[in-house]
Amino acid sequence: MQPVILDNLVGEFREARAVVMLTGAGVSAESGIPTFRDAMEGLWAKYDPSQLATPEAFDRDSETVTRWYDWRREKCATAKPNPAHLALARLEEHLATQERGFTLLTQNVDRLHQAAGNRNVVELHGTLWVWRCTRCGIEREERTVPFQEYPPRCARGGARRPAVVWFGEMLSEQALKQAHDALATCDFFFSVGTSAVVEPAANFIYSVRHRGPKTVEINRDATPISRVVDWSLLGKAGEVLPELVRRAFGI
Ligand code: APR
Q1: Is the CB–ligand 1 distance for residue 161 below 6 Å?
Q2: For 212, left (φ over 0), alpha (ψ -120 to 50), or beta?
Q3: What is the pTM of this model?
Q4: Do residues 160 and 128 make contact, with C-beta atoms less than 8 angstroms apart?
């Protein structure tokens, strides 16, 4: 069945000058990557994510936390961008040829947007492909799966942790600034595949809405912002996004 996308949205979107896309775990779900909460399965079912994704958990038991991340890295390593990622890559490329703005703000840590070809990506929650030494702070890309030691160590022996934002931690200032700059100037804001409950991303819609940009949500389920946006499109990101960019831009 074709997703229902109203003509007035397609017409307005065609005229967009600066687009911000906020994405969440729902966009990667069709690539087979379990959402954060769904990732507590199998061996990991007895854990609470808040017991694994905190600096305190890493201090207490860095081996278990690393093994959980390694299990997730393994899933991400074999995952491929799905039609939602590919539609966003086509959209960025198309808008760039017309000197229109496009910024992708993602809460996902899997780098599938970059694998699809998106370039202007702000990783709000970091990425599990980069690990940072807890002693010297040096970050290094860690693509080998699985690790040889838990946790991996830096040359001088310091334990490395994933360069992701854990519960209770602040987002990087640079990522936040890039996000706020894009939000302050966009004329189209999309929230795609995110439950819209985790701050600060959950708040982005309220920070743009008063300025008057058009706002759209694409989600399989209703969320707290479904009634706030101008258009709420219920459906899978991998079906709705390709159809929307095809109708608006013929790509
Ligand atoms: N298409 C569109 N939406 C989908 C799809 C799909 N195929 N599959 C699931 N969804 C929706 C769900 O209905 C839900 O609203 O995606 C949303 C996923 O929500 P969360 O699991 O809460 O993910 P997210 O919003 O990215 O979480 C934000 O919280 O768990 C922490 O740090 C983690 O980055 C994560 C942050």
Answers
A1: no
A2: left
A3: 0.95
A4: no
